[in-house]
Amino acid sequence: MFKLVRTLHEEKARLFGLADPINLSRCRWQSDSFARNVIRLTKASLLTCSRFKGIEVQFVDGGDTSIDLLYDQTRKALLIHAKWLDFEWVHSKYFCYASSAASRGIGHPDTDEFTCYHAVEDIFEHALAELRGPLHLDYSAVFELRRRLRRMLEQMPVRIKVVKDDTPGTLKVTWKGNKATVTKRYASVVNYHVVLHDATTCEGKRTNPIFQLRSGGLCLSTEDGSRHRLHGCLRISRP
Prior knowledge:
This protein has helices at residues 8-17, 33-45, 87-93, 97-103, 117-131, 139-155, 180-185, 199-202, and strands spanning 56-60, 69-72, 77-81, 158-164, 170-176, 233-237. Helix 2 packs across helix 5. Helix content is 33%, strand content 14%.
């Protein structure tokens, strides 16, 4: 039996599913670091669970609809409204230190370090609500995924820089812990996994999010297989 009449929500969902994907290089957010970070971290967040494998994340032009996101089971695509890329719109719903500073002319979201992890957590929360049914996620699984994402965002290093060291043939890699106080106080147990890639073979993959869970924490693997604990600075010499 065919359903000839749709509810208002069903019609909105149908139209949202037909929305055009956002091309970041050709839209008003093309040079917006806030938008780039939201896209990057949202895609990375879906790597925290094997159940999400194969799901494509697409930010779409949803127009004036109130729908935040929609899971298209046929295409196996998670369609997210592009309004989540807009710094002003996101912070009309959630007032954080970054928006407070920007409203007073202190700093700018396009140039300052990304700190609005609440936007990524909100998108992830909507995604869990949308995917819970189709992927048969029970309450305990959803709870663990929320907690895992929060932990990963807290532990994510920022201000990563790679420069030539004074010693010939040596690179210096520096970074800051996302939570400076925690990183400094518990430096002896805070470990990061560092992989150096050759630009000639990995240039095309530089924007791919990578997620790895290790029972012993995050650690460093060098070319010779040795591992070291890291606390914010690393020097690596090519043999």
